[in-house]
What does this fold into?
Amino acid sequence: MTSDDDNGAIDTMGDLVRLIGKREVIPVISNAFRIEQIFREDEELSRMMAEVPQFYDEFRTFDQQLTKKWAASINYPMSDDHNLARVAQYLQVEKGNAASRESYRQYLNDRVLKLSEGNEQYKNDEEYRNIVSGYRKPSKGQIPLFSDVVTDLQHPRFMEGVDDPLRLLAQLPVKIYITTSYSNFLERALEKEKKTPLTQLCFCKIDKNSMKKEHLPDRDYQPTEKEPVVVHLFGLEDYTKTLVLSEDDYISFLMNAVEYMKSDDMFPSYLRGALSDPESSLLLLGYQLRGWDFRTLFRFISLVRNLNDTDSPSFTIQFKPSLGRKENEARSIQYLKNFFSKGKFTIEWNSTEEFIYELWKAWNA
It folds into this structure.
């Protein structure tokens, strides 16, 4: 597989396989990556996706359609109801930070419970119905973890013979994974591959006594392939206060990153060293250019990495723009190339899942 470049074709897959073999690749995985797989079975969201104009570059993901439904449930009044950061910002102003984050968490749970109530297993399996019922009636004041609900109700569901792409990523010889997911889906995938991951949160300015000690940045940790680290940059649902959800949250994250860039208690040396290593390569999976999560992540990367001293290429997986007019598409493609080239990223035009399947095939060739 090759990607076009101003200087000729780049063998993206060959480069990645070589760099993975050298243990120099750091996958960076979005929150939307797993959300897309979980809610792909949701018929209402699927219909919403089908209604998007063919040549439209805005509402193209299940994550965005899910946000539109959450926005409708809270009577969001603006037109940008697909934008999670802005919807969360609105609710934070109206109801407060905690209420906004809890509302989002509860909505995700309600949506996956509704999805589960509509499948054949719910109709035919009493034990399954009891699990759903138990999550419908949680302990007072407690919101079940989305990752628990999803796992216990056996989502996402892949067609027979189709591998879970997250488990394929978990099988690669990687020491450090970075994710902007709020849930521990990646850790669960690693555990299924007989690995022992360490969950770490960085730049979280909350009472450390309220967090498990093993989730706090460990300045002395040395990750290995069998004991990799999973770094949650934008918080973890176990601690609602840590979630980076609204526009203000993203700005606060960057301010904290600048303030604590050299603090091992906020940004452990193993992670700082890996990100700033000129021979390390990042692989961005599941991000949309316009999303606040991507824009904040990309700015963070530029703060940490010395782009003038970076030897290895990094990679991002993107859909090609589909705008109807070839001239507009060509200009959009060139814009994306110019944008990512500033960070020394090569673009692979593909879906994230399809790319992972092709990477797995190349790695095992």
Observations:
- Residues 36-152 form one domain.
